[in-house]
Specification:
The structure holds 2 protein chains of 2 kinds.
Chain A: H1 13-21, E1 26-27, H2 28-38, H3 47-60, E2 63-69, E3 75-81, H4 83-108
Antiparallel strand pairs in A: 1-3, 2-3
Chain B: H1 18-43, H2 48-59, H3 62-102, H4 104-133, E1 144-150, E2 159-160, E3 162-163, H5 164-173, E4 177-192, E5 195-204, H6 208-212, E6 218-219, E7 234-237, H7 239-246, E8 256-259, E9 262-269, E10 283-286, E11 299-307, H8 313-325, H9 327-330, H10 337-343, E12 348-351, H11 352-392, H12 394-402, H13 407-443, H14 458-485, H15 500-540, E13 550-556, H16 559-562, H17 569-587, E14 592-598, E15 610-614, E16 626-631, H18 636-640, E17 644-646, H19 651-656, E18 660-664, H20 665-671, E19 681-684, E20 692-698, E21 713-716, E22 732-739, H21 748-758, E23 764-769, H22 770-777, H23 779-813, H24 815-823, H25 828-857, H26 873-899, H27 903-909
Parallel strand pairs in B: 5-10, 7-9, 16-21, 18-20
Antiparallel strand pairs in B: 1-2, 1-11, 1-12, 3-11, 4-5, 4-8, 4-11, 6-9, 7-10, 8-9, 13-22, 13-23, 14-22, 15-16, 15-19, 17-20, 18-21, 19-20
Helix pairs in contact in B: 1-2, 1-3, 3-13, 4-11, 4-13, 4-14, 11-14, 11-15, 11-23, 13-14, 15-23, 15-25, 15-26, 17-21, 23-25, 23-26, 24-27, 25-26
The chains are: A alpha+beta, B alpha+beta.
């Protein structure tokens, strides 16, 4: 198992989870796999951060949770995006793009005279 | 993905296991994750062991994650529960409000019934709380006692107050009493440049403040020297009077004031709320109490004492009895052994509280009992209404429980409605109680002490709301017990499905309620009826005088100028001339027919008495009768309308001091039974005095109250015969004016003008009509009668509604049966009789139980009644008749409805 080369930026975990779950209900392990797969292992989420985050978002009402069975017939807790979660995702996305734009502006700026 | 079903557990039992469940779920979730990871690595070629190590290493401490998640989930769970609960509450309330609004008739009846019942109870409870339950306004009032002397040998129930010698003796020797003080209610004239006015005065011994545990706010308390004869006059100003009259002037101590034409120095200001027991004091002055004066058998002082720590009233009583038995050896002249045995002179130590709230305590408890009965009847009605509602909602309940509502949800649903209704009723009840208390204060019944302390406090208010809340819960649950029991009964859902047995049970429950109602109503009406009869009897009592068109007022001439400390001829003459002139001027007022005056209108308990020796009788100080004495002026009897046989002394008789005297019929009958008292001779006090000759006999006047026997009275002239040491000059008199004016009180300003022209330092006090005085004598009976009559009326109406409701309901239930009967040839009359008969049966059972209850309970009213037995058959018979009529009348409308049943329609309908 290769070590990840990027540390997760503060505040982006929620966004990653929300976006990931926007594709459909998943259990925690699936969320983890999905992020690793998409980023080619460059971005790794630790379990110690993922599960509290999932439970906290459930409390906030962004995620719903139901127990169900995987294809291999194992019992797992599936998280899904609620309407509030969808709204939150939109808000986080626009926040993220404004943030990156601003950061980009700074780091790509030519010296100003 | 399939839903996991955990609804199998009843909601009620889920809560305690929530934590356990949450932990399990987290555990499962994390285990799934770890196992998934391991499987993944094993698939990639790791050995199981390697895979496990790798995963564990990456995951970190599982316990930390688990705990963190558990904390979050617990919070989530709590929030969710709260949310659900709130939503359920809001839903139930919304539903309840809708119910209340959609059934205005039902709601209004429930609210009004509860408001009346609870409001009346709250009002009386407030009264009881203020007058009886709250401790007296003294520090540690429970250890204060009142001491007096029963003298059953002189008159049954007569109680003399403390004597001066007795007071000093007790104060010196008693060990069970911490301290003993004496006091009297009194009045003085406060003379200021604006004129003179009467002020209420407390005359006290130096230690009074010590005994009641008070300390002056400013200045000093009285000291023993202030009580000595010829001590310079000093005064302590009452707190309220100080604030109102002297603007709370802090420099008041040391100033002087003119009281009844004598100069008093202000030595202090009393603390707030300090008064005599049941007498609002404006000024405090020292009593004249000479410890060295010879003992006299004169009992004119109220005595208040504080028990020593740990001493019971009984122990104090035992010691006081021992001390009283020593009086003859201590003061052989005043308390001869003969006097002690003939008068059965004894002592009584009573908690002060019992003296102050005395008889009224029982009256108020009885009234509270009465309104509580009204409340019970009201609750029975409301319970009945809810039972009917429940009946009509059986299908709804069945439907709800078929749709999955559990018992708790059902309970919440129905409780919301009943509690809402009850609370609205409770709030209205508080308003009603407030109004009733205001009304009582305005009414100011003279028979109730401590009324100045009356206000609707938070305690009764909370009690009212708690009561309504409790009622709401009971009414909500009452029908539910039955409904839930049959809640799962799916047969209810079938069209027309109606369980006959359940209805029967319902009906018997409702009939039981009505029987209870009737029984309670009988008890209450019997009580009200007994009071009414007492009131009638009391009204029928002739007071012995003609009260209409009479104005009375009191007048007190300052001793310093009119009297003299040792009564002598000059003192009498000055007073006599003033009175003579006053009567002359008052009689000249337009509309005035006659004017009379006397030292007192009434002989009250504790006023003491004077010995009378009758010529030709071998009477000693021990055997001579002790009777009330009044100094009466000419015109007194004719003005008051007291019939006189013989004649009454004139001004000339009095000036000549020819010893003409008038006696009351009661005295004459006692002393000279079967003889003509006119021409007989008598003399007051001892031997050697000049004799008085009886010139007239007056009718008896019920001066001690209409419910008391007439006193024996000797009416002496205003000036005593030479050599007769007859008390003091009559500086304090009550004047009666008979007028043709519609309102005798309208004369008051003219009277005041005349008196102040004659002496501007003499005010008049207590101007009132004789009718008011007589009414006061009936006040306690009137008050209890009025409130019991109101309670009885309410009980009657509520019971009528109750029995009507049940009979009406039965008729609607038995429509089918009635239809069949009529189809089989029953007459309308027979059907009507059947319905009325049923009503009478229910009423009859109730009345029978109620009569038994009344016989058992009206005994507690004995002291309130006048010339009526608590089991007066006439009263009980009338109550029975009234309720039988009520039972028949309540069934009239339902019976008519029953006779209108169309058998064809009913039979087809079924």
């Amino acid at each position: 198992m290769a070590a990840p080369d990027l540390d997760l930026l503060r505040g982006t975990l929620d966004l990653l989870i929300l976006k990931t779950l926007s594709w459909g209900p998943m259990h925690g392990l699936a969320v983890l796999r999905w992020v690793e797969q998409i980023t080619g292992q460059r971005l790794q989420i630790t379990e110690g951060a993922l599960y509290p985050a999932l439970h906290r978002m459930e409390q906030k009402g962004w995620l719903g949770a139901d127990w169900g069975y995987t294809e291999r017939n194992r019992e797992a807790k599936f998280y899904r995006l609620t309407a509030a979660g969808r709204r939150q995702l939109t808000a986080e996305l626009s926040k993220w793009s404004r943030y990156t734009e601003a950061v980009n502006l700074v780091i790509t700026a030519e010296a100003v005279r | 993905m399939t839903k996991r079903d955990d609804a199998g557990l009843p909601r009620l039992f889920r809560l305690p296991t929530a934590k356990h469940r949450l932990r399990g779920e987290i555990e499962r979730e994390l285990r799934f994750h770890i196992e998934g990871r391991i499987d993944e690595l094993v698939a990639q070629g790791y050995t199981r062991q390697q895979a496990e190590r790798e995963v564990t290493e990456r995951f970190g401490d599982v316990a930390t994650v688990r705990n963190e998640c558990e904390e979050i989930d617990t919070m989530t769970h709590r929030k969710r529960e709260l949310g659900e609960w709130r939503a359920a509450l809001a839903r139930d309330l919304r539903h309840a409000l809708r119910g209340v609004v959609h059934r205005p008739g039902f709601s209004a009846v429930v609210i009004a019934t509860l408001a009346l019942g609870i409001g009346a109870t709250t009002a009386i409870y407030t009264l009881l709380d203020a007058v009886v339950l709250r401790p007296l306004a003294y520090a540690n009032a429970e250890s204060l006692v009142y001491i007096n002397h029963p003298v059953p040998g002189i008159e049954t129930n007569a109680q003399w107050r403390m004597s001066r010698a007795g007071y000093f003796f007790f104060r010196r020797t008693s060990k069970s009493l911490d301290n003993i003080a004496v006091y009297n209610q009194s009045e003085l004239s406060l003379v200021s440049p604006d004129g003179a006015e009467r002020v209420r005065v407390g005359r006290i011994s130096d230690n009074f403040l010590d005994v009641v545990g008070a300390r002056p706010l400013l200045g000093r308390a009285f000291v023993a020297a202030d009580n000595l004869p010829n001590a310079p006059p000093v005064v302590i100003i009452g707190y309220d009077f100080w604030r109102q009259r002297f603007n709370a002037d802090p420099g008041i101590v040391g100033r002087t004031m003119n009281l009844s034409s004598a100069t008093y120095q202000v030595v202090g200001v009393a603390p707030p709320k300090l008064h005599l027991p049941d007498f609002q004091v404006q000024l405090w002055v020292p009593h004249e109490l000479d410890p060295n004066a010879p003992a006299v058998n004169q009992h004119s002082y109220d005595a208040i004492a504080r028990l020593a720590p740990g001493v019971s009233v009984a122990a104090a009583q035992a010691e006081a009895a021992r001390l009283t038995a020593q009086l003859p050896e201590m003061f052989s002249r005043a308390y001869s052994p003969g006097f002690m045995s003939s008068s059965k002179f004894s002592v009584l130590v009573t908690p002060l509280r019992d003296i102050v709230i005395g008889g009224i305590s029982r009256t108020l408890w009885i009234l509270l009992g009465a309104v509580a009965i009204v409340l019970l009847i009201a609750c029975a009605n409301v319970a009945n209404l809810f039972l009917v509602r429940a009946e009509s909602r059986r299908r709804e309940v069945a439907l709800r429980s078929a749709l999955g509502a559990d018992r708790l949800q059902l309970a919440g649903h129905y409780l919301a409605e009943s509690v809402l209704l009850a609370l609205i009723g409770g709030v209205l009840a508080v308003g009603l109680a407030w109004a009733a208390v205001r009304f009582l204060i305005v009414l100011n019944p003279p028979s109730i002490p401590r009324l100045s302390e009356l206000a609707l406090g938070w305690r009764p208010m909370m009690a009212a709301l708690a009561l309504s809340l409790g009622a709401g819960v009971v009414f909500g649950l009452l029908p539910l017990t039955r409904l839930v029991a049959s809640g799962g009964d799916a047969s209810m859902l079938r069209e027309g499905g109606r369980s006959q047995t359940a209805s029967r049970r319902q009906l018997s429950a409702r009939s039981t309620l009505v029987v209870a109602q009737m029984a309670l109503a009988v008890v209450l009406l019997a009580a009200a009826g007994l009071m009414l009869r007492s009131f009638q009897r009391l009204r029928a009592v002739h007071p012995g005088l003609d009260a209409s068109g009479l104005l009375t007022f009191e007048l007190s001439l300052p001793w310093s100028r009119y009297g003299s400390r040792v009564p002598g001829p000059e003192g009498y003459l000055t007073v006599f001339r003033f009175h003579q002139e006053l009567v002359r001027q008052l009689a000249a007022l337009p509309g005035v027919t006659t004017v009379g005056m006397a030292t007192s209108l009434a002989i009250k308990d504790g006023d003491g008495c004077a010995l009378v020796f009758v010529k030709g009788r071998d009477l000693t100080r021990e055997t001579a009768p002790c009777v009330g004495n009044i100094l009466a002026g000419p015109g007194y009897f004719s003005t008051l309308g007291i019939p006189v046989r013989g004649r009454t002394p004139t001004w000339a008789d009095m000036e000549e001091k020819n010893g003409s005297v008038v006696v009351s019929k009661a005295f004459a009958d006692h002393m000279w039974p079967g003889e003509d008292p006119i021409g007989k001779e008598l003399r007051p006090n001892g031997s050697g005095d000049p004799w008085y000759r009886v010139v007239g006999v007056t009718g008896d006047v019920l001066t001690r109250g209409l419910d008391q026997p007439a006193s024996e009275i000797v009416y002496y002239p205003m000036i005593p015969r030479d050599g007769a040491p007859l008390w003091q000059a009559p500086t304090y008199v009550t004047v009666a004016i008979r007028t043709r004016a519609d309102d005798p009180l309208s004369l008051t300003p003219a009277v005041r003008r005349i008196v102040s022209t004659m002496d501007r330092e003499v005010p008049i006090a207590n101007a009132q009509t004789m009718e008011t005085i007589v009414a006061h004598s009936r006040a306690k009976t009137t008050f209890a009668m009025l409130l019991l009559a109101i309670a009885g009326g309410m009980a009657l109406v509520l019971s009528a509604v109750g029995i009507y409701g049940v009979i009406s309901y039965t008729v609607s239930q038995r429509r089918g049966e009635i239809g069949v009967r009529m189809a089989l040839g029953a007459h309308a009359g027979q059907v009507g009789r059947m319905v009325v008969g049923q009503s009478l049966r229910v009423a009859g059972v109730g009345i029978a139980i109620g009569l038994a209850g009344a016989l058992a309970t009206t005994r507690v009213m004995q002291s309130l009644l006048f010339n009526v037995s608590p089991t007066d058959p006439a009263t009980l018979a009338s109550v029975t008749v009234v309720l039988v009529i009520l039972g028949a009348a309540a069934a009239y409308a339902p019976a008519r409805r029953a006779t209108k049943v169309d058998p064809v329609e009913v039979l087809r309908g079924d």
